[in-house]
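Reopening this one. Same input as before:
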Amino acid sequence: MEQVLARCIVAAMEGEQTRGARGVVYLEKEHTKYLFPHELNPPAFRERITDLVAEDAVRHLVLVHKAELNLHVSLLICPAGPPQLL
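Same output, byte for byte:
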């Protein structure tokens, strides 16, 4: 579980740096990607995720996990303020 969370955090950080903010981390089997809501399917799911990201992307990291035919959404709390290096 810790390895999966670490992959998600790395994908989110790299995705935001290279592609920009307001994306989601998409998990399918062993693959982890940073996608924007408009890249997700089916369309009804895409609309819901677009609304969620628009409302809450600053406070949470949105994870979309595909398991067989189901899509599960989880929110991870982001620390307050921008990340800081120690």
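So the earlier flakiness isn't reproducible anymore. For the record, The chain is about 35% helix and 30% strand.
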